[in-house]
UniProtKB/TrEMBL annotation:
<dbReference type="InterPro" id="IPR050266">
    <property type="entry name" value="AB_hydrolase_sf"/>
</dbReference>
<dbReference type="Pfam" id="PF00561">
    <property type="entry name" value="Abhydrolase_1"/>
</dbReference>
<feature type="domain" description="AB hydrolase-1">
    <location>
        <begin position="26"/>
        <end position="141"/>
    </location>
</feature>
<protein>
    <recommendedName>
        <fullName>AB hydrolase-1 domain-containing protein</fullName>
    </recommendedName>
</protein>
<dbReference type="InterPro" id="IPR000073">
    <property type="entry name" value="AB_hydrolase_1"/>
</dbReference>
<dbReference type="GO" id="GO:0016020">
    <property type="term" value="C:membrane"/>
</dbReference>
<dbReference type="InterPro" id="IPR029058">
    <property type="entry name" value="AB_hydrolase_fold"/>
</dbReference>
Amino acid sequence: MEFNPTKTIVHNEGCDLHYWYQGKGPLITFIPGGNGHGRQFNPIIAALSDKFTCVTFDRRQMSASQVKVNKKLSPPQQARDIRAIIKALGFEKSILFGSSSGGIFAFQFAHDFPEMVDHLISHEAPTITLLPDASAIFEWGLHLMEVYEARGLEQAASEFRAKLTGYDDEGIPKTASPEPENPRNFWDNEFPVCFAYVPNLWRLAENKTSIGVMRGVRCKDAFFARATEEQAKILGCPRLVVPGHHQGFEVETKEFLPYFLEMLDALEKKRSSV
């Protein structure tokens, strides 16, 4: 379908959350990661809105969803923001798709509001403390924070981007750039939390929450891609290797879409068989 969403705002905990939605049918909520903006999901929203109501948003302190004073990231607050948007749309539950730290926020939402989860798909959530080489990656994260404090945003971001394989592959379109203030907020207030925080996946397994995880084929052995292996072990859930890099859903949407629908179908069949 043509992308022609309805844009609106819901106020939650001191923030006007800017969100937009399109389509009819079951709700899919697309949750941004560290880049903060919802525009990355516009192509997949257009592709799915013939069968689903699709919504995304700018996360608090990112893009249009600004606050008076920026604060340190709280994953539980991010989950409450997601709840506010779902409720504002008049739904009691939603399918969730979260990418990168958006996957962490999706896990947190499922932990805090399990009754509101229809299905959850997490795409490359960077739960680094689950990895066999967690110690080395954690200390690399500390190094990046020191670089940011001593040498500035561009140097830290450059070293971080080196892990984002696939973005420069031949023929791959560029992703939508976040507003300039987003990277600053990410490094000031979000990176340390996102890099170390892991929601209680064991509780999600106990709750039998319908979850699937994905990793992009272009990401090769990146830590956030490998983390999906450990997530799937804990959750006992389906895991798919899908087209694209860390934002493949945005720039290789046509190739990505069948895998997204395959995962939804697998989760629906798994739930029906229980």
